[in-house]
Model the fold of this input.
Amino acid sequence: MALLTDLINLDLSETTDKIIAEYIWIGGSGLDLRSKARTLPGPVTDPSQLPKWNYDGSSTGQAPGEDSEVILYPQAIFKDPFRRGNNILVMCDCYTPAGEPIPTNKRYNAAKVFSHPDVVAEEPWYGIEQEYTLLQKDVKWPLGWPVGGFPGPQGPYYCSAGADKSFGRDIVDAHYKACLYAGINVSGINGEVMPGQWEFQVGPSVGISSGDQIWVARYILERITEIAGVVLSLDPKPIQGDWNGAGAHTNYSTKSMRNDGGYEIIKSAIEKLGKRHKEHIAAYGEGNERRLTGRHETADINTFIWGVANRGASIRVGRETEQNGKGYFEDRRPASNMDPYVVTSMIAETTILWKP
Amino acid sequence: MSLLTDLINLNLSDCTEKIIAEYIWVGGSGMDIRSKARTLSGPVSDPSQLPRWNYDGSSTGQAPGQDSEVILYPQAIYRDPFRRGNDILVMCDCYTPQGEPIPTNKRHNAAKIFSNPAVAAEETWFGIEQEYTLLRKDVKWPLGWPIGGFPGPQGPYYCSAGADKAFGRDIVDAHYKACLYAGIDISGINGEVMPGQWEFQVGPCVGISAGDQLWVARYILERITEIAGVVLSFDPKPIQGDWNGAGAHTNYSTKSMRSNGGYEVIKEAIQKLGLRHKEHIAAYGEGNERRLTGRHETADINTFVWGVANRGASIRVGRDTEKSGKGYFEDRRPASNMDPYVVTSMIAETTILWNSA
Done:
């Protein structure tokens, strides 16, 4: 395939100023990522320089056939790790031709929350720990697992190395560098407790940028697993039984929490979250009841508890935060298939804007 | 997969100052190596510039779920041979949030011994010969062996070449260069007596650095075997019967032993080791009784015997050392699965600090 790769890797900057922009959006299920590319006359550094575009919403469950155009508004630019050069990835959100956000557009409302003066003043930071499972193509059984059977029980796999313990590292390492190249704030990666499961973390990111970066990081991951011939799953409990689920723990802090006396602010924020537990859970990802069982490092879905260094809690506060009297906390409830626009803005809304 | 390889090999130094640091630690069994990576804002040359970190000790048998944080203290930096650029590997040891070393942290005590003034003055050098066996994935039978059967008896394999005699050289050679790149003092490699078994040597290293370097070399080897789809075993007697075991012979000298008259110091040190034979054996690796049988170039586990050029001894002194009247000696007792922090510090402690009275 060397000739094909030569063509894919052609450096066009010697022959033309034109660049390729891959427009990315979220489809009708709220979890399916879609994209298509267009040529632009020259390099672009700001989303405002990019033209709006449109796509066939009737093919993604987002518009009827007789009125199918959905409009794409460019919102954030990242460098394209696949095409490289001056080529870009563009995260977009979706509107009707009349300028209204379509129902599956969760970014619009999140952006409103994040531009509220009270929220802006608090500079909300997010660090999201995205877990995911790699599956063998066709059989949809986790990567590295014997087909028709199971590996040895959990224990040896978390942060492991070795051909009998760690499956798919090339995907994970390629993703890490590709995201850093793209300009996504990936802060780390690790192998997870269930074999074939991995995690990457994005953050700290401010406000709406957290959602943009997670979605583009997910897109890049799906493109890389496509190259590797492996299937990406964001299902929160891919295998029933004594196997961990997959979450998207969301670490959060505001300016007040990061300053002296912040620990009290953290505690009152957690209290507020506790009062809206049901509302948050409803928005924290489909199928989460299969994952939040009270076992496998989760708290039961109907229970709200918080604790320092407690991985069986709904919300965990780190020892360092407790010791310093300021810092951040971790909402462990969101599932791996959550929408980061929804989760991040809801946490900000409940803790900053909502009055019980 | 070349598109994947293009991404894995991306040189980020053109677009960012950020580097990736892989923090490595020893897990709850005392033999499982764990690691995870984080992004740092720029290149780092000294461990003191690295932040402490933490991990979920409840997933490695090192902490309970409701109080799960174990703290990682960075101790030594090496260049990352997989990510290259300015990316690094960081050898760490593990502490409770209160700052106490957790029970499986053997480095802490070793570091105390090596910073004892009497030990530091003697500049303890270690050269460790790490043997290991390569196994086929899934069947866990040695690489190159027929499945359900055995190769011809030992004889042709030691230091051999040939498709019917040497199995897995690509792993061994990749490891050799990767370790040199990383900054590990790897002094050599050879194919071993049992087919599918190999050895690399790390040293001479001073004090605590021997343990750090050996653990990171083991980590790099496990990463390489992972890439190759082969399983790494440090079991001291992987196959019963007329097949050699795997050891971690530890070569040792102090300043006094390396100076004129050193041979007498060596003999005294060996005598002290003989008086503490049982204690050392207990700390020299699990399962060693299956290996130290008195056959296959070992001394029986209950016997302490030393000799010049004697590979059937517990401790062997080289002919060179005997002739020069100074040099070093080789403790042949440690198993391949020994903890180098424990073994190196115990040898130093017994020979320098311990009084036989």
Remarks:
- Residues 257 and 326 of chain B are 6 Å apart (CA to CA).
- The mean pLDDT of chain B is 96.
- Chain B touches chain A through 51 residues (CB under 8 Å).
